[in-house]
Amino acid sequence: MTKRSVQNISTIPDEGIDKGAQRLTPDQVSRVIRRHLEEEGGARLKVYTETCVHCGLCSDACHFYLSHDHDPKFSPAGKVKQTLDKIIRKKGRVSIDFIKKTAEIAFTECNLCRRCVMYCPFGIDVAYLMLFLRRICHKLGVVPQYIQDTAHSHAATMNQMWVKDDEWIDTLHWQEDEARDEIPDLRIPLEKQGADIFYSVIGPEPKFRAQMIYQAAVIMNAAGMDWTMPATPGWDNSDMCMYTGDEEMVARLKKVHFETAMRLKTKRIVMGECGHAYRSVHDVGNRHLGWKMSPLPVMHAIEFYYELFKDRKLKVNQKYDAPVTLHDPCNVVRGGGLHEMARYVINETCSRFVEMHPNREHNYCCGAGGGVINCGPPYTNKRVVSNRVKADQLADAKARGAKTIIAPCHNCFGGLEDIVKHYGLGMEIKFLGDVIYECMDKE
Amino acid sequence: MVGVAFTVFLAGSFFRLISMWRLAKKKDGLIFSYISIFFALRSIVHWILPFAGVSMRKHPAMTIVAFLFHVCLFAVPIFLSAHVILFKESWDISWWRLPDMAAEIMSWSVIGSCLFFLGRRIFLPEVRYLTSLSDYLILAAVAVPFISGLWSYHQWAAFQVVMIVHIISGEIMLMIIPFTRLSHMLFFPFTRGYMGSEFGAVRHAKDW
Amino acid sequence: MNHSQWDWNVGKKAIADLSQWQNAFEWVEEPYASPDGEMLAAIVKTGDSEFSVCENGGLWENYFDKIWYLRFGPDNSTVALVSQDSMWTVAVGGQPWENRYDFVWDTRFSKNGKHIIVAAVSENKYFAVTDGAAWEQAYSFLTNLTVSDDGNNTAAVVQSIPFNSGDIFKFQQGCYTAAVNGETWDNNFLNVWEMNFSPDGRHLAAEARRTLFDYTIVVDGRPWDNNFSSVWKPQFNPADGSVTAPVREPGGWALARNGEIIWDERFLQLWHHQYSADGKNIAAIVAPEYGQRTIAVNGKPWSLTFNNLVTDLVISPDGNRVACSARAARKWLIAADGKRWDETFDMAWAPVFSPDSRHIAAKVEKNGRFFIFIDGKPLKIDFTAAWAPVFSPDSDKLLVKGIGGENEGQYCRYVFKLSALLV
Fold first, then answer.
1. Mean per-residue pLDDT for C103-131?
2. Is residue A315 part of a domain?
3. Is residue A73 less than 8 Å (CB to CB) from chain B?
4. Stretch B78-83: mean pLDDT, rounded?
5. Of the candidates C30, C106, C171, which has its C-beta nearest A192's C-beta?
6. What is the ipTM of this complex?
7. Three-class DSSP labels, C398-419
8. Judging by beta carbons within 10 Å of its beta carbon (0-12, 13-18, 19+), is residue B37 exposed, middle or buried?
9. Range of the domain at A39
10. Is C198 a member of any domain?
11. How confident is the model at residue C354, as a pLDDT?
C-alpha cells in the first residue's frame, strides 16, 4: 500500500480566480448566469439535474472521492450539489465567493473522465455538468490562471504553448537533423500536398518533448508511410479551450486543424499520443463546427501503431523486456474504445504484460486530465493527493511485477509522473512510441 | 378521483416528455443525431438486468433491493386482485391478477426496500450528503400507499380511515411522478439510451 | 496571369525523366511542376549536407545547406527557402536574395508573380519581407501574413503590447493588432486572426476579438459597431468595396455587411464566402442542418448535401456557376451547381473552371493513381503524380501535367483539344 497522505485541502489561492472574481459584482454574477441558463441550459441540463435521485452510486466511480477517504464532498453528485444545484435553485443569485468555490471545484476537482457515467444507473453525464459550470466561469472571467493562459496561447498562436510560427518549423528541422544522425535519409516532410497522413501533435511536443517528433519520424520512415506535417498554424491538435469553457475558441482551433488537413489534401489525420486532443478532434470540436463526426478520418497513435503492426509494416528486433503495465487513458478508452488495440501493440512489443486493476473502461483517471494538470503548480499537491487510489492501483501492479507504466497520453504521462514521484513508487513511465522506438527494426 | 389521478399522471407525463423533447430540439438539437437504437438498447438492457454492470456487482445488496423494489412497485398496484376488480367495475377492463399471498409479500418487499433506502439515506455518508427533505418526502410518498394498503387489507385498527389514506396517497404518488424526481421513471430510457448511444456509436466503449 | 503566351499546341511534350534524377542524386524530394507545365523541379541532395534544386534535369548553380518549401511562382519561377551558414533567405531560380535572416517562411506571391513575400525573423524580431526588402518595423510576434493581389501591400497580425508570461489580465486588455506594411493599426485587440485586403490593396479587413466573448470585424483598424459571439474571415465586395463576413447570431450563422445582417437565412455553419468577380453573387460553404454541409448561393443552399465536408469553393469566371470538392460517406467527389459527378474518389482537388465558365476540370486520386476529370468524365490517361489542369484562354484546350502517364518516372505536359476529350 502507498502511504496515506490525505490532507485537509482548503481553498487554494489562484490569481486567475481571485483577481477575476474581484472584477465581478453580485449583479453581474446573477445576470451572466441567468443569461447563460437561458441561452445554453437545455434538456440535458434539466434532465440530468432533475433525474438524479441522490442515490450516491456514482461516488465509487470517482478517484477524488475514493482518495479522500470517501468524503462525500468529492463524489460526482456531491460536487454537483455544492455548485450547480444551488446555482439553478437560486437562479444565479449566488455570491462571488460561491463562484470562486465553484470554479475551484469545476476546474480542479473533476477530471471530466466520465467514469461516473458508468456507475450512474441513469447515465447522468457529470462531466457535461462540470463543463457547463466551467463555461459559466469562463463567461464570468473566473478561470484558473495557468489554464486561462493556455487558452490565450491557443487564441494568439493556434497552439497551446506560445510556440511561434518559425519555432515550430525550426523544431521540425532540428528533429530531422538529429534523426539523420541515426537514419541518414530520414525526412520530416513539410507541406507535402496529397500525402496520405497529416501527423499532428500537441503544443508541448515541440516545446518540451521534441524527441517524440523524432521518434514518430523514425516510425513513419521505417513503416514507409507517406506523411507530412504542416508549416503553418493548425499543426497543434490540442485544445485547452475545451476545458476552460471557451467553446468559440474550440471551434476556431478545430477549424484551423481540420482545414490544414484539407489544404494539405491528406486522407487522414494521425495524432500523437494525447488523450484530450483526441477527445477534441474526434468527439467535441467537430460538434462545435456543426460536424457530426470529424470530417476526415482521425486516428489516435494507438490505432495507428495497431495498424502498422497488424499490417506488418513495423518489425520488432527485440521485445521490451521489463514487465509493463498499461494505463488506459480515459479519453481514448472510455472516449474512444482503443483499449484492445493498445494491448495488441503491447503484446507485439513487450515480452511481459501485467494488467492493472481496474482496467479498460473502468481504469482510474490519472488525475491530470480534463485540464486539471493545466491549472498549474498551485494545484499539483492537491491533484496528487486527490489520486491516492491511482497510486494504490499502480502499487498493486508493481507488486505483481510491473516495472514500467505505459501511458499513451501526454496528460496521463505527466499526471502519473507526479503520482509515482509523490508516492515513491519507483516505476518508469513510457509512451507507447518510446517502447516501439526502442524495440523496432529501424531499417 | 382515480380518473383524475390517472389523467394527471398520464397528461403530466406526456407534457413532461413533450416539453423536454421540445427543449432538446431547441437547445440540444445535436443529441438527436447521435441516438443509435442499437446502442441505446444495448445500454438499457445492461442496466435493467440485475448484475449486468460493474456498479451493480459492486453493490449487491442495493442491486437486489432496487430490482425487487421496482418490480414490486409496478406489479402490485397493477396486478393486485382488489385493484383489478376495481378496474373491472369502473371501466369494465380486466387482466391477470396476483395471488393475494404474493401481493402481500411483494408489498412487504416494497416497504422493506423503502426502509433500506431510508437506511442508506441516514447511515451512508455519501448518500446522506446528497439527501434533502424532498428525498425523504418522496420516499414517504412511495411507502405510504403500500403501508396503508397492507393495513387496510389486514383490517387493522381504523382501517376504514387508513383505506382513505391508501386511496389518497396512492393517487398522490401517481400524480407526482411526472413532477418530482420520480420522473426518473420517464426519463431513464432517454438518459441511459442517449449515453449508451454516445458511448457505443461515438466512443466505441461500454457504459456499464 | 496571362496564359496566352504558353505553348497551346496540341500534343505531348516529354519534359523530364524523374527516374534518372533518382539515380543521379542521393535523394529527390517530391517534385513540383510549373504552372505552364514546361518545368519540373525538386529539391535534391547533392552531397553531405549539400542541397540544390534540380530543374528539368539541370541543377541550380548554387548549393545550400538546407532547402525547403520549393514552389513555382505564377510566372513559372522556381522559388525556395534556402539556408547557408545557418542564415536563411529566399532563392529565386537558384539566386538567393542578398539579405539573409535568422529564418524565413510562408512564401507568398503577387497574382502576377512579380513579387515574392515571406515572413522573417532576425534577432527575435519579426517582420515581412518583399523581394528582399524588409518592413522598417519589427515585432516580437507575427503571424497570418496577408498579401494584396498586386503584392504591393503586406499585412500580418503582430503583438503590439508586451505582456509577461502568464499575465492573463494584461492579455485581456488587448495586446495584438494588425500591421500593414509594417505600421500597426491604432487599436489593439485580444486577437486578430484571418485578414483580407481589398482588391485594390488599399484596405484591410480582419477577424478580431475585443473581449473574451465579443468578436467583430475590423476594417483598417476600425471595428464594426456590432459584436458577435463569433465571426469568420471577411471579404471585400469587388464592386462596391463593402465588407461582409459570416457572423454568429443567437439563431445561427448569418452573413453580415458592415455589421448588419444581410442574409435572412441562418445556418449551423457558414464560412468561406466568396464573391463573383462582378460582386453580384456570393457563394459560401454552409451547414443547413447538423452534420450536413453544402454550398449556398446568395443564401440559398443546394438541396444536395454532404455529410463529411465541403471545401475548395470555386466560382466560375462569369459568376454564375459554383463548384467545390466534397467528402460524403467517406468518399471524395466533385460537385457543381447542386449536382455531383457520379464518380467518387480517394481524394479530389479544387475544381477548375474554363474561362468561358462552361467546363470544369479537376485532379483526383483513386487507388493510388491520379486522374484528370473533365465535366465528370476521366481522361484516358492516368498518372503516378499530377497537377491541376489548366484551360487555355479561349477555353478550347486543356493543359494536363503528370508523371508516369505512359512511361514510369517520365514527366510530360499534354495539351488536349476539348472537343476531342468531350466526345
1. 98
2. no
3. yes
4. 96
5. C30
6. 0.98
7. EEEEEECCCCCCEEEEEEEEHH
8. exposed
9. 15-143
10. yes
11. 98
Same domain, A328 and A420: yes
Q: Is the dihedral of CA C120, C122, C124, C128 positive or negative?
A: negative
Q: Which of A277, A310, A343 is the last residue of a domain?
A: A310
Q: Tell me, what CATH number does C217's domain have?
A: 2.140.10.30
Residues 6+ apart with CB under 8 A from A18: A100
- Nearest residue to A120 (alpha-carbon basis) of C173, B43, B171, B83: B43
Chain A closest-CA separation from residue B80 CA (Å)? 27
Chains that touch B (3 or more CB pairs under 8 A): A, C
CB nearest C143 (choices: A192, A233, A251): A233
How far apart are the C-alpha atoms of A8 and A19, rounded to whole Å? 24
The set of cell numbers assigned to B188 is 431513464
**B108 shares contact with chain A (CB less than 8 Å):** no
Q: How many CB pairs under 8 A join A and C?
A: 108
| Residue ranges making up the domain that contains B49 | 36-201
Residue A32, chain B, CB below 8 Å: the answer is no
Residue A6 in this model has a pLDDT that exceeds 60: no
Is pLDDT of A190 > 70? yes
Across the interface, which of A70, A338, A358 has its CB nearest the CB of B125? A70
Per residue in C153-177, pLDDT (tens digit) is 999 999 999 999 999 999 999 999 9
Per the CB < 8 Å rule, is C291 touching B29? no
**pLDDT of C139-158, one tens digit each?**
999 999 999 999 999 999 99
pLDDT for residue A7 is more than 50: no
Q: What is the pLDDT of residues A358-387, one digit of tens each?
A: 999 999 999 999 999 999 999 999 999 999
C202 inside domain: yes
Chain A: touching chains (3 or more CB pairs < 8 Å)? B, C
List alpha helices for C151-232, DSSP H: 168-171
Where in the sequence is the domain holding C137, given as residue range(s)? Answer: 103-262
- Across the interface, which of C143, C307, C327 has its CB nearest the CB of A165? C143
Could A248 and C69 be called an inter-chain contact, meaning their C-beta atoms sit closer than 8 Å?
Answer: no
Q: Cβ–Cβ of A246/C176 closer than 8 Å? A: no
Question: Do A305 and A332 belong to one domain?
Answer: no
Residues of A numbered 105-134 whose beta carbons fall under 8 angstroms of chain B's beta carbons: which are they? 117-125
The CA distance from C384 to A98, in Å, is: 64
Summarize pLDDT for C50-67 with one digit per residue, the tens.
Answer: 999 999 999 999 999 999
Q: How many domains does chain C have?
A: 1
Q: Do A164 and C309 touch (CB under 8 A)?
A: no
Nearest CA in chain C to A375: C166
> What dihedral do alpha carbons B184, B187, B192, B195 form, nearest 10°?
-120
In a shared domain, residues A269 and A369: no
Q: Which residues of A touch B204 (CB under 8 A)?
A: 336-338
Write the pLDDT tens digit of every residue in A17-71.
Answer: 999 999 999 999 999 999 999 999 999 999 999 999 999 999 999 999 999 999 9
The mean predicted confidence, pLDDT, of chain A is 96
Q: What is the DSSP string of B44-77?
A: HHHHHSTT-SHHHHH-HHHHHHHHHHHHHHHHHH
Residue A382 and residue A257 in one domain: no
User: Which chain C residues have a beta carbon less than 8 Å from that of B29?
Assistant: 290
Is the predicted pLDDT of residue A2 greater than 50, yes or no? no
Residues on chain B touching C250 (C-beta within 8 angstroms): none
Q: B85 CA to chain A: closest CA distance, Å?
A: 34
Asked whether the beta carbons of residue A42 and residue B23 sit closer than 8 angstroms, the reply is: yes
pLDDT band for position B95 (50/70/90)? very high
Residue A399 scores a pLDDT above 50: yes
8 A C-beta contact, residue A299 and residue A261: no
Per-residue pLDDT band at A443 (split at 50, 70, 90): confident
Contact B53, A118 (CB under 8 A): yes
